[in-house]
Amino acid sequence: MTVVVMIAGSTPRPAVIAAALETYRQLGARVHLVGSFKAADMEADLGWTTLHKVPARGSAGKHVLRRTEAMSAAERLWFHLEHDRPARAALRTAEVVVALDNRAVYSAWRVAQSRRTPEVCFGIAAGLRAVERRREQAGAVLPEHAPSPVAVATDGLRRRLRGLPADLLRNATGPLTLRSRVGARAWRAAVSAPGVPDSLRLAAAEQVIEGMWLAGRQAGALVTARAAAGKLSDPARRARLLNDLAWKGIRSGRTPGNLAEAVGAHLDLADVRQAAGDLAGASRSVLEAMKLAFHRVVHIDQVSSPLAADPAGFTAPFRKSSAARTAVEAKGRLTPAAAPPKNRPLRLLVATTANANFLHLIRSHYGANPDVELRFLDMAKHPGMNRLNGAPQRHIEHRLGGDPLFAHTAEQHLRPYLDWADTVFVDWCVAPAALFTAIDPGDTRIIVRLHSYEAFSRWPHMMDFSRVDDLVFVADHVRDLAKAAIPGLGGERAPRTHVIDNGMDLANFRRMKDPSTRFNLGLVGIGQVAKDPLWALDVLKQLREHDERYRLILIGGEMSKPSNAAKAYSRKLEKALKPLVENGVVVRIGATDDVAGELEDVGVILSTSVREGCHVGLMEGAASGAVPVVRDWPFFAGGKHGAGTLYPAEWVVGTPEEAVERVLALTASDESWRNAGKLVTEHALTTWDWSVVRLDFDRLFFGR
Question: 50-53 and 29-35 as β-strands: parallel, antiparallel, unpaired?
Fold first, then answer.
C-alpha cells in the first residue's frame, strides 16, 4: 500500500478531491492531507487517512509572526510544516508527495531536498500516475520529482531531469526556490552535472536561469549559464543559452556580464555553419553576434562603453571568426577610380538615408558651383533601396558568398547612379555605405564620411572598405577609435583617411551679450545619454556655492528613451532637474529652430559629454562669444587625440571641480569674460566656419 501525502497551500475543491480520493483508494493508496485549508470543507468522510491543518497566520504567536513576517505565503507554509510535529511525521512516511497548488510546490520541493525516497509531484493527475507506476514497478526509481542536493551529481539526476514534468520544473526552478542559497546551488550543480543530454540540460538550465533572474540572483544566473554552457556539446544550444541571458541584461538596461561569451558563441556557431556550407545560417549567427556586441545599451545609452575602453580587444572575436572575417574580406574593384574630369563639371552624387542634417552647406555650396553637377539621393525615399538597407542578414549572406539575388537587386538600383557619377559622397557609415560596397563601383570614386556613433555600430563590420576610396572622419580621435576597432580598416587595401571638420555656418552666431549673461551656463542638446547633463548639474551646484547668480540654460528637446538604460538615466535627470527648474536655477528652452538667438543669453558654453565627434553645439556657442568649458570626454580621455587636441587645451577640464575653477576665473569680471569671449569667437570662425572648411572639401572632391 502506497503512502501519499498531499500538501495544500489553499483549500482544494471538495468535489474534485472526493473523486480523486476514490481513485487513489482503488489503487491501494493511503492519502494524508497536510497544509493550510478550511477544515470544514475537507471533511474526514471524504476518505482521508489523516487530515492535519497547520496553524493559520492569525493564530500564530508573536514570535512566529515576527519570523514569518517577511516571508511569502509559500515560504510561510513550509515554515509551519517544518515546525509542526504531526506534519513532519506524515511527510517522513510519505512515498509520494503531491503539491496540490502553486503555493504548495515550494514545500514539496523542500521535502525532495531533504529526502531522496519520496516522489514529488505537482497536481492530482501526476500523483495518480506515480501511484500507478509504483504498483507496476514496485520499488523502481520514478522520475516526477525535483532533484535534491544529494542527487544532483549522480546519474540518477539525468533520469530525474528526463522525466520532470514541465509544470513541476517551472515551479521547482521558480524565484521562490532559487531565492535560497541551497536551492540555487542545488540547481546550479544539477544543470552542470556530467552525462546529461544537451536537450535536457538546456531545458533545465533555461528554467533555472529564469528563476534566478526573477529572484534577483543575476550573478547566480550568470554563473549557472556559464556552467551549463561549458557542458553543452551542441554549439547552437550553447549560443541560445548564452544569448538569452545576455538579452536579459540588455533589456534590464545593463551591459550583460556574459556579453563576450555570448558573442563568441554566436561566432563559433557561424564558423561551424559556414564550414558546412550553410551560408544563410552562418549569416544569421554573425548578425546575432553583431546585434549583441553593438547594441545601443552597451555603447550609446550608458556613460561608459567596453568598445571605447578597449576597441581592439572588444572586436577581437570578429577578427578571429572565419565567418566574420569573410564578411569584411576585401574584394576590391576591377577598375581604379578615375581622376576628376578636367573638361567638364564634376558629377557629384551625395547620398544618405533619412539624415541630411550635416549636408545642408555641402549641397547648397556645390549645387551652386559651376564646376559641379550635383545630385542628391535619399535612399529612404526609394522603396527598393530602403528594403535592401533594412536587410542586414542579406548584406552579410551576400558578403559570405550567398544570396546572389541581393547583389543583382543592388546592381539594378545603384548602377544608374554609379554610371552617372564621377564621385559618390555617402554621409554616415551605415547601411547606404555598405550597400554601395556590395557591388563593384566601376571607375566611380566612393567617399564615405564616418561621424562618431557609427564606430559603435555593426555596419562597418559588414562592408567592403576596399571599395571605398576615401574615408572622412570629423576628428582625429574618431579616426583613432575606428581604425583600432574596425577590422576592415587595416591592411594594404584599406581606404585613404582624412579628417575634415563638419561644415557650419558660424558667422551668423556672433552676438553682443548683456553683462548679466556671464553667469548663464549653456548646454546645447540633452537628447542623448552621451551628453551627460548630470555632469553639468554637478558643476552648477558647486558654482552656486560660490555665487547664486549662476544659472544653467538647457537648449534642445527632451532626452530620447529607446531603452531601459536611457529611461533610467532620464528618470534620474528629471528628478534632479525638477526642483532646479521650479526655483529658476535651470531654464529649459526646449527644441528650437533659432539656436543662435538662444545662445545670445549664454555666457559660458559647456560640453559635458562622455563622447563626441565634434560637438557642434559647443562650436556654435563659442562662435557666439560664450566661453567654452569642455569636459575631457571619457570615451577618448587618455588617448593620443581627444577633446584636448580638437579644441585649445585650456578649454578642457578633467573634473567638475576643474570646470568650476575655469568658470570662476573666466567670469571673475565683465572684462575678463568679454576678452575671453572675443578670443573664442575668433578661433571658432577661423577654424570651423564653412568659409574655411569648404577648402578642405574642395581638395577632397577636386584633388587640389
Answer: parallel
Residue type, 688: W
| Residue 162, number of CB atoms within 10 A of its CB | 14
Instruction: Report which of residues 136 and 370 the model is more confident about.
Output: 370
Q: How far apart are the first and last CA of the chain?
A: 100
Q: Which of 600, 604, 589, 519 is nearest to 557 (CA)?
A: 589
Question: pLDDT digit string (tens) for 19-42?
Answer: 888 899 888 899 999 999 888 887
Instruction: Select the more confidently predicted residue: 377 or 215.
Output: 377
Mean pLDDT of the chain, nearest integer: 90
* Among 420, 470, 412, 357, residue whose Cα is nearest residue 701: 470
Numbers of helices and strands, H then E, in the chain: 34, 17
Residue found by looking up cell 533601396 in the block: 385
Grid cell in block for residue 261: 561569451
DSSP 584: T
The answer to whether residues 466 and 493 touch, using CB atoms and an 8 Å cutoff, is: yes
Question: Rounded distance, CA 435 to CA 638, Å?
Answer: 35
Q: What is the DSSP string of 191-216?
A: HT-TT--HHHHHHHHHHHHHHHHHTT
340-378 per-position pLDDT tens digit: 999 999 999 999 999 999 999 999 999 999 999 999 999
* Cell triple for 510: 556672433
Sign of torsion, CA 692 698 700 701? Answer: positive
To which residue does cell 547612379 refer?
A: 417
Q: Are strands 445-450 and 470-473 parallel, antiparallel or unpaired?
A: parallel
Q: Residue 311: exposed, middle, or buried by beta-carbon count in 10 A (0-12, 13-18, 19+)?
A: buried
- 454, with CB counted inside 10 A (0-12, 13-18, 19+), is buried
Other C-beta atoms closer than 10 Å to the C-beta of 294 total: 22
Closest to 553 in 3D by CA, of 541, 538, 536: 536
Only one residue has cell 559622397, namely 425
CA distance 701 to 515: 45
Q: Give burial (CB, 10 Å; 0-12/13-18/19+) of 335.
A: exposed
The answer to whether 251 and 298 have CB atoms below 8 angstroms apart is no
Helix (H) or strand (E) holding 50: strand 50-53
> How would DSSP label each residue in 516-574?
GGGGEEEEE--SSGGG-HHHHHHHHHHHHTT-TT-EEEEEB-PPP-SSHHHHHHHHHHH
Q: What percent of the chain has pLDDT over 90?
A: 71
The reported pLDDT for the residue numbered 414 is 98
Q: What angle do CA 484, 488, 492 make, to 5 degrees?
A: 95
Give the H or E element holding residue 28: none
Task: Kindly state the cell numbers that stand for 80.
Answer: 509551519
Question: For residues 480 and 471, what is the distance between their CA atoms, to the nearest angstrom?
Answer: 13
**Helix (H) / strand (E) containing 335:** none
Pick the closest to residue 435 from 375, 351, 496 (CA basis): 351
